[in-house]
């Protein structure tokens, strides 16, 4: 596709896709792709279902996207306060990125988030990803898991602990029935480390969760 411009600077360019910050124009394609029971079933409960326009707007606000259209029913609400809410003193280390084809087509989402609040996991991030069904089976998730993981473990990425140290570990937790995602992680070089039996609750059901990890020495071993 010619004439397509990325709305924001691409952050990570891979062979077949780009990981970049979300933009307001992602709202419609994101909601259309994410509103799918075959995606929701393998995401954590925080992933909305149905994934409607309001859910999409809420997510893009979390991602600090500017120039969003108003929420439906916004006219019925009282005017927003003019003073900005107090900014958090500690910036979030979480990173939320849209996955786009090289022609700019939105295909899904990925990101890294801090593991726990007590600081003992501060050298780790948890990776997450989803791909719109229309784009499954093209190797995109494998490319994203490999590319984002390796990038995040590189000191040049700027993904550092609060005390300025490079990350040492990227972790993924996969429901034991999610064979596609397990395959993605294994192909991307993550090591299957074990099962947290009944580790999470999903739709009121306890789920075994398989833990995969990628650490810096895995990268050295695969070079
Ligand atoms: C899991 C997911 C991200 C994979 O995306 P994708 O871009 O299709 O992944 P890839 O093409 O890189 O690889 C998927 C592989 O799993 C295989 N696969 C798909 N369904 C499978 C199943 N039920 N059992 C075994 N393998 C399966 C595919 O055939 C493919 O392997 P192949 O290339 O050898 O044919 C996508 O299905 C998705 O978004 N699922 C819902 C959300 C989700 O599970 N997110 C991850 C949470 S941990």
Automatic annotation (TrEMBL):
This is N-acetyltransferase domain-containing protein. PANTHER family: ACETYLTRANSFERASE (PTHR43441:SF10), RIBOSOMAL-PROTEIN-SERINE ACETYLTRANSFERASE (PTHR43441). Residues 41-211 form the N-acetyltransferase domain. The lineage of its organism: Eukaryota, Fungi, Dikarya, Ascomycota, Pezizomycotina. It holds the Pfam family Acetyltransf_3. InterPro entries: Acyl_CoA_acyltransferase, GNAT_dom, Ribosomal_N-acetyltransferase. It comes from the Eukaryota. It comes from Sporothrix eucalyptigena.
